[in-house]
Every structure is written in C-alpha cells, then in structure tokens.
Design a protein that fits this description.
Blueprint lengths: L6 E4 L2 E4 L25 H21 L7 H4 L6
Antiparallel strand pairs: 1-2
Length: about 80
C-alpha cells in the first residue's frame, strides 16, 4: 500500500513537514518523489483569498440581482 508524506526537497535531502515515515528496516526503501508546481507566495494567496471573500460578500448582499444579466453576458458563447 502506498503512503503519502509531505516533505521539501533541498538539494538531495528530504525535509519532512508533517508526519514522517516510520523506519521499519535499516535497508533502503523504494520511494516515488512527485515534484509539485511552484507554490505562490503566502502574501499573494492571502490577497487572493481576501479578494475572493470580498466578491462572495458582494454576491451575498446583492441577492438575486447579481445574476440578472447572466444570459446577456454569455449570449455570444452560444454561436
């Protein structure tokens, strides 16, 4: 069964972030390392989250009016 553990790769070393695998044997174990795409900076994520929350609050306070002209906005896509 495959297990997944979060880690950062620095040079040729893995730095475990959360849970670490329990070493059952002193012999080497086979692993797969999947390199994730570059993560955006936390400040950008925070700013993006704030923008999204502000938009959701606007939609919430606007009631159904926010979606009144949706068909008009997308009419050109039907062609």
């Amino acid at each position: 069964m495959l297990q997944t553990f979060k880690a950062n790769l620095k040079g040729n070393q893995l730095e475990w972030l959360d849970d670490q695998p329990i070493s059952m044997f002193d012999k080497p174990r086979s692993v797969y390392v999947v390199l994730l795409e570059e993560q955006s900076e936390p400040a950008k994520d925070s700013q993006s989250n704030e923008t999204t929350l502000a938009a959701l609050k606007e939609i919430e306070t606007g009631g159904g009016k926010v979606f009144e002209n949706v068909e008009e906005l997308f009419k050109d896509l039907d062609d």
